[in-house]
Amino acid sequence: SLLLQVRGSGGARLSTKDPLPTIASREEVEATKNHVLETFYPISPIIDLHECNIYDVKNDTGFQEGYPYPYPHTLYLLDKANLRPHRLQPDQLRAKMILFAFGSALAQARLLYGNDAKVLEQPVVVQSVGTDGRVFHFLVFQLNTTDLDSNEGVKNLAWVDSDQLLYQHFWCLPVIKKRVVVTGPCFSKSQMSTSFVLTPSFNAGEEVMQRNLRASASLPPSTGSPASELVKEQEEHAAGRVLRRVMLDSETPREELPAADFWK
Questions:
Q1: Which of 47, 141, 246, 250 would suit a FRET pair with 1, their CA atoms being 20 to 30 Å apart?
Q2: What sign does the CA torsion over 60, 63, 67, 73 have?
Q3: What residues form the membrane-spanning segments (predicted)?
């Protein structure tokens, strides 16, 4: 038989004093004997694995004997790649979750029941959460047997809840400079477009500008004087009455996005 080793960074692990309760009952576990596993035949399921020499074969849970929280509870896997081409695809992340949950459960089972392949009296349950920061995947893995040489008999079980979005869209914070609010780039699944709206407080700002203009106009004009420079600057501000805003969804009618929502 082949020796397969699960190794690498399994993310963060939450451990507990007591094991997780089993999900499937004894009758449901026995019913897995009739389930036929899918096969890649004639392609080998280990076609993309690298063969190497292993001289020290051992099961390591990562914790020393006597650790007060010996039972695995939940594994947290975070895809930290900043660039999209380097990120794992959702199905790849779910496969990694299953792999490390299985490895953690198998190491715990052999620590408790020995290395002999057999159906476990008390199955080992491990949870896992995987995310890239926006899309979350949840897994519960129940190890029912350590007999991995045959496709017959009792099988192990996994429940997966995938592609759960933490949020739909990301809105950036506004940048306010010289009475003009300019939003930066925002991202969503929708096509991005640009449109223009008026700020709800622009009327009040315009009245202040006009009042300042009238007060400045009463001063004797002089080239290069502070009053004339103030008038020039305020005229420029009064001319720029349109607020540039980036809206995410080009299909959304403008009336569905009132300007007042921007200031909440």
A1: 141
A2: negative
A3: none
pLDDT digits (tens, 9 = 90+) for 113-171: 988 888 999 999 999 999 988 899 999 999 999 998 888 899 999 999 999 998 877 66
Distances (CA, A) of 97 to 11, 115, 131, 174, 214: 10, 23, 10, 38, 69
pLDDT band at 255 (very low <50, low <70, confident <90, very high): very low
Tell whether the torsion through CA atoms of 129, 133, 134 and 135 is positive or negative: negative
Q: Concatenate the DSSP letters of all residues of 169-220 into one string.
A: -B-PPEEEETTEEEE---B-SSPPEEEEE--TTHHHHHHHHHHHHHHHHTSP
